[in-house]
Amino acid sequence: MTRRKLVAGNWKMHGSLAQLAELDAIAAAARANPQVDVAICPPFTLIAAAAARGDLTIGAQDSHQNEKGAHTGCVSAPMLREAGAKLVIVGHSERRTDQRESDAEVYAKARAVIAAGMIAIVCVGETEGERDAGRAAEVVERQLQGSIPADGTATQLVVAYEPVWAIGTGRTPTVGDVAAMHASIRTKLGDMLDAEAEGVRILYGGSVKPSNAAELMAVNNVDGALVGGASLTAADFVPIIEAAARA
Ligand SMILES: O=C(CO)COP(=O)(O)O
């Protein structure tokens, strides 16, 4: 099956109204490469302004699992949808660490995002210690088992494999290690989702840059990228979009 590649930028806690000017060239690159899906996930405060431009798919970086309620400081999936978000990252390792999010919470958030009519990008990935101990595949399989809704909503599901030790470090796994992990994720998704697993895109994330994007995007079962630092400027992000388009 051919899966459309998705290149999504995660701005994390970066950006400003002024920085939305970067979206001019990013949206132009998205238009010039229609075979690739492109999205930017800015902080909550910028979602509405970014989406109002109308020229680029905009997402969010987290969602509460409930639709509404007494949860000071939180934002729900229907609120994100109303602001213009089309997809939501859930279970990023920074939230699993900083906010101590469990697989069960990530599962609930993914379900909320899907129920609100958006795409959930569910992040998984091992720490360096887990990889060194030979447990990377086992850890990722456990995260998938606990965080992925397996109830017939696979068309709104994307998985992002982000090895924690590769995020923001400039280090990446070997192409062989990425291929092995993405194949093992595909197999696990097959166990959980049956035939629908073939349509689920598996993104690679962690120090994706213009210089390594082409080789990463060419790996079997790599259906795009979740990009942090290199998504903050069009100068870095556009070549990654172009590499995905050529892969
Ligand atoms: O965490 C990431 C995307 O969600 C990856 O971040 P970097 O691309 O900055 O390594």
UniProtKB/TrEMBL annotation:
Its EC number is 5.3.1.1. One of its GO terms (molecular function) is triose-phosphate isomerase activity. It is an enzyme of class 5 (isomerase). Keywords: Cytoplasm, Gluconeogenesis, Glycolysis, Isomerase. Pathway: Carbohydrate metabolism; erythritol degradation; Carbohydrate biosynthesis; gluconeogenesis; Carbohydrate degradation; glycolysis; D-glyceraldehyde 3-phosphate from glycerone phosphate: step 1/1. Pfam families: TIM (PF00121). PROSITE patterns: TIM_1 (PS00171), TIM_2 (PS51440). The keyword Lipid biosynthesis does not apply. Its main location: cytoplasm. It comes from the Bacteria. The keyword Isomerase applies. It catalyses: L-erythrulose 1-phosphate = D-erythrulose 4-phosphate; D-glyceraldehyde 3-phosphate = dihydroxyacetone phosphate. It is found in: Cytoplasm. The active site is at H92 (electrophile), E162 (proton acceptor). Substrate binds at N10, W11, K12, G168, S207, G228, G229. Transmembrane segments: none annotated. Homodimer. Involved in the gluconeogenesis. Catalyzes stereospecifically the conversion of dihydroxyacetone phosphate (DHAP) to D-glyceraldehyde-3-phosphate (G3P). Belongs to the triosephosphate isomerase family. This is Triosephosphate isomerase. It comes from Sphingomonas tabacisoli.
